[in-house]
Amino acid sequence: MKYKEETILIEVKNLVKRYGNNTAVDHLSFTVDKGQILGFLGPNGAGKSTTMNIITGYISATEGTVTVNGLDVFEEPEKVKKMIGYLPEFPPLYPDMTVREYLNFVADIKKVKKSEKNRMIEDIMEDTRIAPMADRLIKHLSKGYKQRVGLAQAIMGYPELIILDEPTVGLDPKQIIEIRDLIKTLSKNHTVILSSHIMQEVTAVCDTVMIIDKGKLILSDKTENLSESLGSTGGLRLSIKGDKEKILAALNKITRIKNIEVQEQTSSEIVNLMVHCDEHEDIREDIFYTMCELGTPILEMQTIRMSLEDIFLKVTNGSAEESVSEEDLELYDQDNELDDSRNDNKEDNTDAGDL
Amino acid sequence: MLAIYKKELRTYYTSMIGYVFMAFFLVIIGIYFYIQNLMYGAANFEYTLSGVIYLFVLLVPILTMRLIAEENKQKTDQLLFTSPVSAGAIVVGKLLAVFTVFFSVILITCFYPLIMSLYGKIPYASAYSSIIGFTLLGAAYLAMGIFISSLTESQVVAAIVSFITFLFTVLMGGIAGAFPSDNKTAYIVFTIIALVICLIIYLLMRNLTFTIGIGFLMVLGLTAVYLLKPTLFDGSVIRVFDWISVASRFDSFNYGIFNLSSIIYYLSIIFLFTFFTVQVIKKKRWS
């Protein structure tokens, strides 16, 4: 138990947030360990921002508790807020201040010690690469720079926990890579929670992913586990040079292959195929030797992995058409529960309307 | 709190608002001072001050309109209310900043009685007690302004609502005396006020059962008092409207009376509206 206390930074228990009849966050429970980078993934309106706003103490929860380092956000807000740096969806900037004035103000309200203040502001401006803009008015900065000033604000005081709500929205690809690198550097000394509706971002930066939809936790796992356990579909994508009929005939003889899809031919000599077998079987060698015998060279062979995007769509919509594995079945179950709860909600709504 | 105070004060003087307020206020006071005291040769500085009370109606909204409305609009409230500073400290910091701008004007007006002393004997006591009253009246308006600013996201709405409210409180002193003082009118007026309060409660909370409950209790209470002891209502309308008219409390200072009850009245208005502002901000978290 003691070991647990030392490693867990945030503990969210049964968090509920209702706006009238609308449930934004629905019995959400999770923990975040120290040093983790957690990615919140979900479509727009999934409750990501609401959850973050509750953790940072900006809004209150209808039910449930949030503790950071064992302190309750609602009972000891000032102590908890001191441990958190927060970049909301819209960076909270004062357009009529210069970058330096602004960061100076942020350092003051976050109670940074006077002796460390100037040094910290300079360091953070270096880290976020806004030093050249230090004496410009914030209203004259581009969107990318504003975002970085917002990030600098969140880092100010080097809080234990940094929460970033869609940190790369509206940035160009180069800036996105820079911000991601920055987040990775930060994660060496801080715990980071970030939200996004972009898959690549989460896979690139986070080590744990939580998928949220309609305020409910749908899936939570390590990033690498996600693509391994859910990702392998037992499929191979092949490009083989040779006669189509002969190749198909040869492949059909391999018993472990379940089905073969022929895809559009880009040239008359090359056959593009999708081959499916059971999930845990490896048929690559079989295919290789068969094609060797036939004398038709394999130009490309690629395992089909489900991208996080597919997983995400599958989990949130239940519109997956791929082969059904055990994990998938579990997901389907969760999904159905979700649908049920949605219907429940509807019924609740009509009840309220009748009243 | 100090950080908020410094930031707000800097904003007043990096934008033009602080200077515009000070310049306008001083010009008008200067003109009144010249006419009342120098041209007509009256030795009472309080005449000048009572003449410029309407300035608050115009100028206080300019100072207070952006204080919280702008934070709401720019979403910078998210920075303030997720930093380790309490809502109370934020509001007090802002209030102190706007007081500082206002007090700097008052500090300059403090020199006027001294200027007059060049021409003859001056009743200093009544002059300075009226300056104290004037300062407290202004501070009360500023506290009301910051409260109105916390209710909206738009500076323009905050300015207009403040303007109308302040105008109402200034005019009220003249209107209140005209109300009938019999108890039946009082009963009707108070019932209407109770219903308006219910409407406001409903608009704020969107809770029909609670609103109806409160409304029912208030009307029941009023009816009970009216049936059991109607004399309690005699002249009460005038008394209530007199109580609302913030500006008419200044009249006693005008006659050279250092009125302690007026001072307590202004201080409680300042305290009350600061408290309301903090509550509005806290309530937003719970909606």
Shape of chain A: elongated
Q: How much of the sequence of chain B is in beta strands?
A: under 5%
Order of helices and strands of chain B: HHHHHHHHHHHHHHH
The level of helicity of chain A is 40-55%
Radius of gyration of chain A equals 25 Å
Domains counted in the coordinates of chain B: how many? 2
**Average pLDDT rating of chain B:** 87
The best one-word shape of chain B is flat
Tell me the CATH architecture of the largest domain in chain A: 3-Layer(aba) Sandwich
* String of helices and strands of chain A: HEEEHEEHEHHHEHEHEEHEHEEHEHH
- The tally of helices of chain A reads 13
- Number of E-type strands of chain A: 14
Q: Work out the radius of gyration of chain B.
A: 21 Å
Q: Specify the CATH class of the largest domain in chain A.
A: Alpha Beta
Oligomer status: heterodimer
Task: Give the proportion of residues in helices of chain B.
Answer: over 70%
N- to C-terminal distance of chain A:
48 Å
CATH superfamily grouping of the largest domain in chain A: P-loop containing nucleotide triphosphate hydrolases
Sheet having the most strands of chain A: 6 strands, mixed
Uncertain segments of chain B of ≥5 residues (pLDDT<50)? none
CATH topology of the largest domain in chain A: Rossmann fold
Structure description:
The complex is a heterodimer of chains A (355) and B (287). Chain A is an alpha/beta fold. Chain A is built from 13 helices and 14 strands. In chain A, the strands form three sheets. Chain A has a six-stranded mixed sheet, with helices on both faces. Chain A has a four-stranded antiparallel sheet with strand order 2-1-4-5. In chain A, helix 4 (99-109) packs across helix 5, helix 10 packs across helix 11 (284-294) and helix 12 crosses helix 13 (326-354). The model of chain A is unreliable at 1-5 and 319-355 (pLDDT under 50). The mean pLDDT of chain B is 87. Chain B has 287 residues and is an all-alpha fold. The two termini of chain B are 26 Å apart. The A-B interface holds A 19-20, 53, 56-60, 77-79, 81-82, 84, 86, 88, 90, 92-96, 101, 105-106, 108-111, 153 and B 2-4, 6-7, 10-11, 14-15, 74-86, 206, 285-287.
